[in-house]
Amino acid sequence: MRTRAKICGITRIQDIQSVVDAGADAIGFVFFPPSPRSVTAEQAHALIQKVPAYVQTVGLFVNASLDEIANILKQAPVDILQFHGDETAEQCQQISKQVGRRWYKAIQVKPGLDIQAEIQSYQDAGAGAVLLDAWHPDLKGGTGHSFDWTTFPKLNIPLILAGGLNPDNIEQAILTTQAYAVDVSGGVESAKGIKDQQLIERFMQGVLRGSAK
Fold this sequence. Notes:
The chain is α/β, with parallel strands linked by helices. The chain has helices at residues 13-22, 41-48, 66-75, 89-99, 115-124, 170-177, 197-212; strands spanning 4-7, 26-30, 56-61, 80-83, 102-109, 130-134, 159-162, 181-184, 189-191, 194-195.
């Protein structure tokens, strides 16, 4: 089975086409104003219009309230919610039920964290997947750092690998972790929020090579 791939932090219409042409499975939009890749609901609405069928759209939220998420979805109806903050399993479950969206949770691989127990709690609450990202004391994703891939667990839930991925290491990352999917943002950019078509193409070629081995 080919490893799925999401390109996150899309801010420009031309980057939508680059991602689609390269064969990515999902496109991510960041709804977190402190991020340099953040978009407004209005901007995301225009971008989503350019996403063809069979490519999923994902909205990334960090500690957003139910009202904030619901208001954004009215204008930018993404397919899936990615909770990337300190949301509890119960909060994720309640918000997703209220807005009628599937969801998954990003967990930072922090030293001393019982990662399997943490994953299990979100799986029990209905997460469709869990994303494992590098830990940073201040940043919520987009750090450009990776964690020790040899610690990547093997569980009966789709696990997404993120953190420090780029065209040069993606093949090895997939071979090491056997992740269900991979998620990249900064690793395919020429500047924050500005995707590079050639880097996206090289990244997706690495995904294919890693999946084939």
